[in-house]
Amino acid sequence: MTPAARHAAPARRVAFYVREGRHRAVVAPVAASLGDRLPWTIHEDVDEVVAGAPDILVLVSLKNLRRFRLALPDTIIGSLRHGLIGKRGLERVGHRPLCRRLDFLSVGDQLTVDRYVAANARPTELWWTGYPQVDPLFRGDPPAAHGLPTDQPVVLYAPTWTEGLSSVPLLGDRVAELVRGDGPPLGIIIKPHPMIATTHPEWLAWWHAVAARDPRVVVVDDRADVTGYMLAADLMISDASSTIFEFLPLDRPMVLITSPAAVEDRSYDADDLPWRFRAVGEDVTDVAQLADAVARALARPEARARERRRVADLLFGRQRDGRNAERIADRIVDLAERMDRGVGPESFARVAERRRAARTTAGAGLVVPVSTDV
After folding, report:
1. Confidence (pTM)
2. CATH class of the domain whose range is 8-131+321-372
């Protein structure tokens, strides 16, 4: 070993925090793309992250950011975002800078940037990398196995879990008959949102009862990555879920169900993507008309192709090569190298110093001015 090697600084340690198991599908490809270039770990427990004291912490949401800021004043913290829509999430994380100040944010579209800026959550750095969760769709990876017969088209039903926005209460345990009507026995894949098992277990019970009596209906693991089932589907039915926009790379038809209760839900935002770009699918407000809408969309899959492609251009731009995870990994490595040199958009040493000072001041019971940007 050379003297230089003996005295080289240890590699910067990277931690990925997945607040929920479903977020793992977002960070796992990035971690895999890092390979052995930097040491990395994935955690679902806040205390494990804090105990490891990583140099770089990668989140997929802003929840728990304040706790990490206080416990890890020297750590550079950024986010990949786990969904393409807002649902007023930035409004609910708290307005103190500790709750919303990111050192970097990985994005693929200007609409997201505008939303963070408007919410006073502008990050220090923007990484124009694209979204790793859509990489399999742009690559055209093999679809997930589902076991349905192949003699009829396959419909994916992927609703949101937010009750006022969700189509599930409208369809109930009649989902198969409302999707098919008097038409052919289409194959139906039901992909539950992972939150449904906790918030609405009765919905799962409805679906499993339907699948038990209908061999052309399958309910897949709620923790599975939905992209594999998107790749298997000829058409997707949703409501106000991020899956609407994640499905766009495939340029396949969608039917969207709008609940009459949507505008009353606290997550409803008329400026959010599901409501601004409703025309990417045929909108249904009466589930009695769902089967006809499905039949029309399957018969004429090109009907809304122009709008689908327009919105895909807004959200994904040129980042359509299926290598977004690699781009993010490269940016993390670049960040680690800049940290070693003490350079960046603002000295990371100064950022850490100000955060330590703010933490000390807060601990003394004094008010920390917003200008510290912690």
Report:
1. 0.85
2. alpha beta
